[in-house]
Amino acid sequence: MRNNKKLAAAAASALFMSALAIPGMALAGQPASASTAPAWSSAATSVTGQVSDTTITSNVKTKLMSISSAVSRDVSVTTDDGVVTLAGEVDTQNQKNQVIQKAKSVDGVKRVDSSGLTVSTD
After folding, report:
1. How is residue 121 annotated by DSSP?
2. Are 51 and 45 in contact (CB under 8 A)?
3. pLDDT the model gives residue 22
4. Is residue 72 packed enough to be buried (19+ CB in 10 Å), middle (13-18) or exposed (0-12)?
């Protein structure tokens, strides 16, 4: 009987310690929330809570797919300190406007430089 109590206590202790080791895991009786995960546990945000340049670039490219796969393929996207730079060629002024608007709509974008984005003259 004494061994069973020791075993139960050890199991409870191990369960508690494993909960502490898993970022974002809620303790019993507490709802799971984003605030339970430490800031360093997400590749999408930096230690300061800002969206990373890599994440911004990826999110802009994903949004460009909604315009067309050709636009997504023909427009290059780079991000430096939250400033998105667009370069390449699109078919129409409307597509250029859409590309710029999609880029501006992404979380973490401070500014969009579209000086390298041109409209085809063909």
Report:
1. -
2. yes
3. 43
4. middle
